[in-house]
Amino acid sequence: MMNKPTRVLLIDDHRINAELVAGMLDQEPDLALDYLQEPGEAVRAARAFGPSVIMVDLHMPVFSGFDVIRALKEAPDLAPIPIIMLSSNDSPQVKATGFTAGAMDYLVKWPDRIELAARLRAHARAHAATRERDQAMQALAASQAALLERTRELADAQASLHEAQKMEAIGQLTNGIAHDFNNVLQLITGHLQLLRMMHKHDEKTVRRVEAASEGVRRGARIAGQLHAFARRQPLTPVTMPVDAHLRSMEAAIAGVLAGRSFAITSSGETALAALDPVQFGNSVLHLVRNAADAMGADGHLTITIDRAPLPGGAEGQGDADHVRVRLRDNGAGMSEEVQRRAFEPFFSTRGGRRGLGLSLAFGFVKQSGGQIELTSASEDGTTVSLYFPATHAASPRQEGGTRTVLVVEDEAAVREVCVEVLRKQGLYVLEAADGETALGLIRQRLPIDLLFTDIVMPGGVTGQDLARAAAEHLPYAKVLFASGYPAGLHEEGELVQCTQLLHKPYRLDEMTRVVRGLLEV
Description:
- By secondary structure, this protein is of the alpha/beta class.
- It is built from 16 helices and 17 strands.
- A five-stranded parallel beta sheet has the order 2-1-3-4-5, with helices on both faces.
- The longest helix is centred in the first third of the chain and has 86 residues, at 113-198.
- It comes from Massilia phyllostachyos.
């Protein structure tokens, strides 16, 4: 393979000089000459030709050779190229000026052909060696940077593995403690029941037994929370629209935040995941309570729902195959040391709190096949991101699937009882505290099988409005009204034929029977 010829650029205002140099190099096949007569174009021509050596005549009428040399040296990409001055003046002052401008050599017009070729080759070799050295140093620096980055990645991976092993060990220990604790509680509650039977006519003793029993119940709740962290709690997952479920929790979230502002936003993408609705709601409320504790009275919490890949992959890579719920507050934030221990049970930076909120969320997310991520900085707020495997929407009336009920009731106590009873029937329940919220859920065309709504509610949206919206957006959905004012229903004769009415007050077993009957039709 032949080596590429050394490229030489001559800048001279007299073409005859170019012809003379070309004749001197005619017998040198390894030297390729290009000529520029316009010194003002020196930088552009040098970039276009890519020379290994540049020869510049010092005495030109418009641009002096010194100006040309300075212009070439001021261009970062051209500065390393060696420059040879050409002049018929052998003055030391002229040479010194040229060297100061950036030239590396000096030739008196005109040198011997052999000397000219030798100097051009020597400067070309030096230039090539310098370039190779610089490239090697750049490659070495890049290799060192890559090695450092890889070392950091390995250190992060080891830290993550250590953290996972630590949390797994804590989980196993916690589960064992909770198991033994429950056995102790069972022993205590058994003897308390015996005491109650033996002293059932002694009111003072009965009160003391009841107080002790309440302590046992509190202990059982703590044991249940420990099981949740250890990923041993029983879950009943159903395919649910995560964004709609969170919007149905707005009243509960507002109550926990106690006047602090919040916003729930979603990307508009389908956000279905197989989750236990009750435990998901509890986990979110635990995180909201943590955010409220970290924020001042003017704090703000943002909850966003979207589709995203699991964290840890390369930026822009990976399918958005998980539903992400992100809670971002503008509170005090956490130090790195606190973040490292944040998911440990009973760890808290605030006195008087058990420190189980993040632990319970961690356990629930892991048990649901997801991942939880915490990012924070002191005085810069905290972001907790929950990732759950996304599921595909099922047919709304698929036989054997979990049925979805939307409960709309402005009385919080009534709504909570209805929701709890229906969930214990194995139904997936969305809830709304007002007609506006319910209307938004209906217009999303969520897979709602039954709309169970009060008729008369504060605001501009009534139960009849919701029934009309359901007929338009959810034609397969059944409607069940509940009201203490049944007269209003008869004004909508057309709707009566596709709805049923529960008169308040109604029994919960009656409500369950009617709901089941509608869903089985």
